[in-house]
Task: inverse folding
């Protein structure tokens, strides 16, 4: 297993564990996003920090996926 694969695995585990916990009645991140889309004016500083902490693994996974795809498809733009 390469270092890149280990990093992907770690980030995916963090997405499941930190981003989605608690799983019932709904994932915490989903609740925060619903709150943000509904009425963000009632959110306090701690709620914004909580959204950032629960969303950070997904942002890291998005960054890794985009950078990996850019590396894989960069040879098409060099022709």
Result:
């Amino acid at each position: 297993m390469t270092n890149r694969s280990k990093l992907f695995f770690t980030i995916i585990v963090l997405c499941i564990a930190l981003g989605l916990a608690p799983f019932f009645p709904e994932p915490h991140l989903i609740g925060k996003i619903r709150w943000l889309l509904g009425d963000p004016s009632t959110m306090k500083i701690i709620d914004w920090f909580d959204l950032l902490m629960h969303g950070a693994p997904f942002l890291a996974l998005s960054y890794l996926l985009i950078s990996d795809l850019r590396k894989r498809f960069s040879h098409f733009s060099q022709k």
